[in-house]
VWA domain-containing protein
Amino acid sequence: MSVPPAAAPLLGFGRLLRHYGFIIAPEQISGFMQAVTLLGPRSMADIREAALATLAPPPDRRDEFEAHFQSYFYGNTSAVAEGDSDEETRVKDDGGADDERIEAEQRQEGGELSSTIDQLSTRDFQRDDDRLTVFRRQLSSALPARRSFRTVRTHSRGKLDLRRSLREIVSADGDVPSPLLRRRQAVPRKLLILIDVSGSMKLHTSDYLKLAHAAVQGADRAEIFTFGTRLTRITSALRIRDREQALARAAAQVDDWDGGTRMGPTLLAFLSVPRFSAFARGAAVIILSDALERGDHAELETAMRRLSARAFRLSLATPLAGDPRFQPATAALRAILPDLDDLIDGSSVNSLTDFILSLARPAPRAATIWKRVP
């Protein structure tokens, strides 16, 4: 699809920020262009304000964002030289990703495929047997429910509908009929699934995407995101009824298949976009990842704490838990364990579907189940 000449510089600025490691979703770039359209724009200050509001740079990288804005729109390259002091926060594809990935695949050891390299690739998904049909049919009624502010008529166990009752009295010439009652409607909670598509999860990605497609088809309000070195919303692609077409569309949208992982920064980027953060409020949130975070896990701990505060239930499904000897003994897992409601086996579709269909039933918190960890 061609881009209007006037919009090309705005799209190019978003690509530039991605090149320098900023986590920016496609919806943010389109929102940036729409915001500029609404503002006129009358000056470069309008474009700058639109970029800050929609692209949402992290506070600790605000100076670097300003430097790139000055360089891109004003040609001030000296600003970039001053703003590029923090090399560790960047995620780049330096051309050595393929060799590193092949060597890691030959070892096939848990956690060895985890890295911070942004590797761009595509993936094709083949149709297999539809073992998720039952899950799709049962999902809507199995999700935990919440009380809506909307009400429905009821014959018992409700509150008096005074307005309609008075209307009935008037229409009956003062006779007092049976009072009309209403109660608040129960609606299924939102389901939010975040899928790790990094290299360390490549053996499970195909099954996770099939599960996500069934979830979108079966639930009224399900949202699906992928993350590796970037964050991508693929819900619209998975709304296509045909699974093969839906997964092909999703494969085309995601750019960071089988690359590195920056779980903490990408989850913080998710929370920094108000529209995305609203998806997590009061929702059942499931993260499908091995949670093998490289380096400092402070950002991951912060993101999980914020997600836990917004979500109705926060669950981490890791394929590593499929091993009976598994213990959440890594520093990252031990740090986020108090924020998790569930830490469960994510090694198979069967275990995941059974767990999702049981979300309405209460269960001990993850820290209680795994308290034996030293």
Observations:
- Residues 296 and 372 are 24 Å apart (CA to CA).
- Confidence is low (pLDDT under 50) at residues 81-115, 123-128.
- The radius of gyration is 24 Å.
- The longest strand covers residues 145-154.
